[in-house]
Amino acid sequence: MQQQGRVYLDHAATTPPDPEVLDAMLPFLRGEGGAWHNPSSIYVEAQEARKAIDRARASIAGLIGANDPEEVVFTSGGSESDNLALRGVVAASTRRGRHVVTTGVEHHAVLDPLEQMEREGVAEVTVLPVERDGHVSPAAVADAVRADTVLVSVMHANNEVGAINDIAEVVRLVKAKNPRTVVHTDAVQSAAHLGVHVDRLGVDLMTFTAHKMYGPRGAGALYVRHGTPLQGQILGGGQERRIRAGTENTPAIVGFARAMEIAWDRREADVAHERTLQERLIEELPRRVPLLAITGPRNVEARLPGSVSGAVGYVEGESVLLALDLAGFAASSGSACTTGSVEPSHVLMAMGIPDDLARGSLRFSLGRMNTEEDVERLLEALPPIVQRLRALSPVPATEAPPSWAEWLG
Length: 409
Ligand SMILES: Cc1ncc(COP(=O)(O)O)c(C=O)c1O
Known about the structure:
alpha/beta, Aspartate Aminotransferase, domain 1, Aspartate Aminotransferase, domain 2, 2 domains, seven-stranded mixed sheet, three-stranded antiparallel sheet, 14 helices, 12 strands, binds pyridoxal-5'-phosphate
């Protein structure tokens, strides 16, 4: 899978397309006989493209347990689905209220539109704190729900620290308090790993993206339970039941469905493999690197399979990443969009991790192609890198400040 000698440990950022996914997509990209045509057109080739999209929609609907394929609305990916869910529900619910409940650890694709909607005066947003391991208390979510709460948005699993939320319980408690409140979950990170099912979770809206499950960039979906108030946000040609206009990206949609089918088929094996590697890193990293705190749940059952995150005292996460890159490892400090910024991650801040410790944050996200050897190589490579960087620092890394104690465990 890897370039010679390189180890890819950033599957939460994106995944390499599966060769079977590419095989499924190619006929729809190539001119020879493939239905690259506009699926809305009348002629026979266009009808082939339309049929391929219908098949993809039916397949995805079946996998996630939707009652009707029409409940699957194709989008360009996770960010668009999140924006559509938030803006779409609030715009369709103005007569009932404008209060929205979310959490401080959501992806920016949820937090930023909500912040903007608050500035515009179209929404009033309650952002809830989270537990110290990054998970959200369902009771706290329900407590925040009011008679005028039109939407709750809580992510299924966190992209930086891997904490899995009990979404079924969030839905149960929220609906008990206000049956008309719509519940959305962002399942971008969890879908393939946890094999999500919309009725078991009970949600009204769920966000998906193909490129986190070995599918192509540029395809995603919003699951929309029938009866959910939702106003389309991209208007034009009336595609996707007038919820999302734009000529459909047939090859990417076909690849998305194939990627999801493969992910569902392989899930047990993938999860077992990723949990084994993940457990080894979570156990061993704090032993090998002094003053390294595992962030997020330590118990792998409560974490997204393959997700490992930590904060290393007395170093900048970015410096460690650059050194790891030179040593052949592709990893991240958190979400790809915050890499490169000087601010510590909003997720670690919401969890209460001290600012100076959070600056040393690292994220390793393992995938189906990683091996035990990859993990052992990382365990060999990281300690001398941290030691070297600390030796260059003007601040001596002698002992941890008292504020770090509870995190270093
Ligand atoms: C939890 C979560 N939501 C949304 C997104 C955005 O998805 P996309 O890159 O498909 O727009 C990401 C991507 O990192 C994510 O991790």
